[in-house]
Input
Amino acid sequence: MSKISRREFIKRLGAGAAVVGTSTLAGCDSPTSSTSSSDSVLPDIPTDKMTYRRDPGTGTKVSILGYGCMRWPMKPKENGEGEELDQEQINRLVDTAIAHGVNYFDTSPVYCQGQSEHATGIALSRHDRSEYQIATKLSNFSPDAQTHEGTVRMYRNSFKELQVDYLDYLLLHAIGGNIEDFNRRFVDNGIMDFLKAEKEAGRIRNIGFSFHGQQSVFDQLMQFHDEGKYHWDFVQIQMNYLDWLHAGVQSKYLYDELTRRNIPVVIMEPLLGGRLSKVNDHILREMKSREPERTAASWAFRFCGTMENVMTILSGMTYMEHLEDNLRTFCPFTALSSEELDFLEEMAVEIMTYPTIPCTGCQYCMPCPYGLNIPGIFAHYNKCVNDGMMPASSQDPEYARLRKAFLVGYDRSVPRLRQADHCLGCRQCVEHCPQHIDIPQQMDRIDEFVEKLKQGKSVTE
Output
């Protein structure tokens, strides 16, 4: 397919070209999906109002809205056996994003079951290279990939899949478990020296890492930076208004430490796996009373963007309506006032009172060796909590209705052989969870909850 320029795409859009929506598509990590198309033109979203931040190291303009390529849309295979990435829909999403000024695309060799880089490369290669910036990762998690040869092979394959001859941003993926893991993956095998040489050769513009883990490891990496042992051009952290002050490792601490060193911040999980886009009805009413036209997701994105050292905020926009909503938030972007920041802190305290499981749906716990759909189980439970649909006392007049809704919804969301009662407590998932969830413990709790519902008992009995 021939390249199209951003100007040409905007021209087509303005002439009434239809943009196909993806509202019924599931993400690449979803167990089921269906395909449907509807025409959706975006006349009310300007194509020249995207807000940009300046990368202090290179001087490059980076769109404050970044595209996370972890959850590209899927479609059924023609032979009916399973699913595959929907390249046509991915192309449309990328075209629309670029037309409205998005220029930062974040992927990894392991996203979408290893297919994200390839699909992202196809979609982006149709545009001029100057119109987009690529961020990908060294996701060398397996022992075979942690050798020098294995890691270099992964690195070079990213160039092939993405169809580029240089990478704008390269991340050491998911650092933070312990410093020994960092040394094994990147130091002892000579990879840090290799990457330094690649950067000097111009094949990498910026080197950083994504952080998931212990504050002591983060502090050690900052010390390396201070001592000049390793230079971090940027760092990707989990940040949102809930984690700002209410996480095991507060994102405020991480942000402040990076800002003190003038290291640009890339934000992941601004919606905390969707939890902050599907807040409790009471909280949503509070938000709507202030900004009737804004969504809960828009509030969360504006929180992140208000922080001046944030270079870009990643959003995994599988659906066209999510992309549209985000474009409205960032084209142009309006920072929150100090009073609005205080309001969001009040909402964070409210959210902490609801007993949801802090799962972001990142899929790092998968696949489960016993076939459980861990994110699916947590997602159904959390949705019922946030929607106020949790059956409690069997004496409640609404108990029968809520009990049926929970159990029927559970069976529809998660096949029975993949539900919580099949967890054997092997704990292989626990070490991979960036949120440090004791997954087997939560599975036992949900299984006990479900069994009480099946028996018609109060969940507090």
Remarks:
- The chain has two domains: 52-352, 374-454.
- DSSP finds 17 helices and twelve strands in the chain.
